[in-house]
Amino acid sequence: MKSFMNLEDSKWTELIDRLWKKDVTIWSNDENVKKTIANRLGWLDIHLKFESFKKPIFDFLKKLKEKGVTDAVLLGMGGSSLCPYMWSKIFGHLPKYPTFYVLDTTDPSEIKKIESKLNLDTTLFIVASKSGTTIEPNSLYKYFYNLVSKRSKHPNNHFVAITDEGTPLARLAIDENFLALFINPKDIGGRYSALSFFGLVPATVMGIEVEVMIKNAKIMIEKCKREAKENPAAKLAFFITENLKKGRDKFTFLISEKIFPFALWVEQLLAESTGKDGKGVIPVVGEPLGHPYEYGDDRFFIKISYNNDQTLKSVDNFPIFSINIKEIYELAGEFFRWEMATAMISHFIGINPFDEPNVIESKKNTSMLLERFKKNGKIDETLGEKDDEGFRFVASSNIDLSKDLKIALKSFFSDIKKGDYVGLLAYLPYEEKIETGAIQFREIVRKKKHCATVFGFGPRYLHSTGQQHKGGPPTGRFIILTREEKNMVEIPKEDFSFWHLQFAQAVGDFRALEAKGRKVIHIHLPVNFFQGFELFLEKVKEVLEI
Question: Which of 320, 349, 378 is the last residue of a domain?
């Protein structure tokens, strides 16, 4: 791993200068890789594009007010959804603006839940996808277009697209005469797109003051041009890389509740950018605070407080980097600080932060499983028969497997080593009971095994931390949860439902993780998945002797 002695080392100044000059050799000398990277550095001069962004955005907002839109739903995944999700959760519903929802799942219950809240006659749908080929937003578009077309003579007036030039989504928006089409600069990757149309258009629809966002972003961008010891991004990158050098790769977030969703955005940025070639920073988000003795020496902490939040606690005797956000709009500047820091960290690790080579593995598996379903009506036959409690499960070949789930779980937890981490991946609705149960799971595992834990809803995590699970340090092991579903919710013009798509995504990721040698168990819960989840937690407690 490359290393500079301290922030006053002249190499830091050189690195900052090279970065602003878009020197692609910072990350690679391979000619093909350099060409790819060269088309991913548009975020560095995003401030030069702000003025050209504003007019189409504000013209669009005026059109929306004339139409009387009451609800807005963003259909997107990963880099296209996490920034809007963050703003929507932090600001909530602002008076005189549409109620804003982010739909970044294929879970049928979650889709129906959002649908039940909408007045479809006055709802706007924002379809966001850089490639224009992402299966989740495309399937959601088909579903809601079908619903709206039954109520409106002009269903196209309910849809807006944000994508790159020339994508299938861009062509669809033109052919179907969408209400608006926003063509994003091609040289901005999805997870670096928060300050582009992907972040600014949804924020405008919510009623967030985009001018103030831009002002705060510009302030941080100027600071990030300074020499290293006064450069916010360089200081952050230095702290993280120094910890990586000492074997501390579990970056644990301590963040004020008011701005917690920002941590989910950073989680995606860091995990997907750095988690490859067996390397990476592993962000630990949403894990409850524990006693110092519960943590291993692979941990370091970053504390982000809102308005000097005195309730935000720390962990003694561990490295900690502190950031204080005085005003919500400063988060717009934090987007840039973290993007630049991530680019610097990737230089030290020796990886390309602008690709996601292992994401395609799960996607290919999902496509293959869905094609199989179309032909013979079956997705996967590897799940065992139901046990007495209604569970079906399958484990990777490196886990002792029997008909008893507790034996498989015991094998799963038995050989956790120093530096390992455990992930719970739930292809379930976004329900508070599930999130609360996940917190219990994480507390139990950390207390007994002294290892880091991560949690993600599927398929959201596939577009966030999924790259790292498969391509990052081979220290993770994972439990995937799915469940039976009575209302599968059909996708118009497809031979499979949302439930089949979601299940195929879970099975596809199981296979990709197993192929990478990760320990992984796929547990299929009964229809009453709340009860099944509680029983699962009880089994974990028994296995870990809680």
Answer: 349
Distance in angstroms (rounded) separating the CA atoms of residues 315 and 120:
48
Give the Cα separation of 165 and 183 in Å (integer): 6
Residue 255 CA neighbour count, 13 Å, CB half: 22
CATH code of the domain covering residue 165: 3.40.50.10490
Structure tokens at 318: 């561990």
Residues 383 and 314 both lie in one domain: no
What are the DSSP calls for 266-333, one per residue? HHHHHHHHH-BTTB--EEE-SPPP--GGGS-TTEEEEEEEESS-TT----TTS-EEEEEESSGGGHHH
Distance CA 241, CA 236 (A): 9
What does the block give as tokens for 110? 């979650």
Neighbours of 436 (CB within 10 A): 11
From CA 126, how far away is CA 449, in angstroms rounded? 43
**pTM score over 0.85:** yes
Contact yes or no for 65/42 (Cβ under 8 A): no
pLDDT tens digit sequence for 431-461: 999 999 999 999 999 999 999 999 999 999 9
- In the chain, the largest separation of any two C-alpha atoms, in whole Å, equals 66
Q: Are 502 and 542 in contact (CB under 8 A)?
A: no
How many Å apart are CA 489 and CA 492, to the nearest integer? 10
Supply the range of the domain harboring residue 105.
Answer: 45-208
**Res 527: pLDDT:** 85
Span 126-175, pLDDT tens digits: 999 999 999 999 999 999 999 999 999 999 999 999 999 999 999 999 99
Round to whole Å and give the CA distance between 474 and 518: 7
How far is C-alpha 287 from the chain's CA centre?
16
Share of the chain above pLDDT 70, in %: 99
Pick from 100, 63, 88, 51: which is nearest to 181 by CA? 63
Is 418 found in the same domain as 317?
no
What's the pLDDT tens digit per position in 283-325?
A: 999 999 999 999 999 999 999 999 999 899 989 999 999 999 9
Q: Tell me: do 397 and 499 sit in the same domain.
A: yes
What mean pLDDT, rounded, does the chain reach? 95
**Contact by Cβ (8 Å): 217, 251:** no
The residue from 208, 239, 267 where one domain ends is 208
Q: What are the φ and ψ backbone dihedral angles of 385, each rounded to 5 degrees?
A: -70, 160
Local confidence band at 35 (pLDDT 50, 70, 90 cut-offs): very high
Closest-CA residue to 351 (of 464, 235, 273): 273
DSSP assigned state of 350: T
The number of folded domains in the chain is: 3
Query: How do 520-525 and 392-395 pair as beta strands?
Result: antiparallel
How far, in Å, CA of 536 to CA of 210, rounded?
Answer: 45
367 within domain boundaries: yes
Cα torsion angle, 134, 136, 137, 140, sign: positive
Cβ–Cβ < 8 Å for 464, 268? yes
For residue 150, the number of C-alpha atoms closer than 13 Å in the C-beta half-sphere is 7
Q: How far apart are CA 529 and CA 521, in angstroms?
A: 17
